[in-house]
Model the fold of this input.
Amino acid sequence: MDRSNWPAKADFPIARPGLFYICGACVVTALLFFMGWVLPAMAAFFITLFVCWFFRDPDRNIPEDENVIVSPADGKILLVENLDKNDFTDGPCIKVSIFMNVFNVHVNRIPFTGKIIKTEYFPGKFFNASFDKSSKDNERNALVISTDKGKSYAVVQIAGLIARRIVCRTGRGDYLKTGERYGMICFGSRLDIYLPSSTIISVLPGEKVAAGASIVGYMY
Done:
């Protein structure tokens, strides 16, 4: 997992964790053109364009309602379910899972304002992130956040079949606001949110959501 520094506010339309991949793709493309290998160079050029597009980091209009829970990721709602317990917070909760394919923006955002009281990294496997077993078996990084309202919730980044790099710029003690950038997962992945059972959920499985802009629910 990558804990490299990454600004909360984008100063460039490309997410900083992607610069390494973009530079590498540019170097390979330039070398192929220099050696006169036109067709491979053209293929590398289009791959470079795709990598730039993949690591795009657009600004989002964050809802101003202090009770709103926003989606931490772009993608599709896989499931919404009630659980009696989970590995991150005490008591019953509501789990919301979001799947990101390679065409989604992969920058992750904080669902609800609060202070990080615990971080936990789990090394693991790389099953397809659309499978529910990935929540337990795959490499993942969890943040447990305490809100100003005295409630706790968890947001978990989960690596997928292709994704092999989780980026998380935050740590214990950090105070982050709703919709603030905090990390990303490279090349397809999944985000799980574990919310208090009293949360009012406003999404259904199959719906598409946008990080920081789409409302997942309300916490009062």
In short: The chain has a mean pLDDT of 86. The longest strand covers residues 75-83. Helices lie at 19-34, 38-54, 134-137.
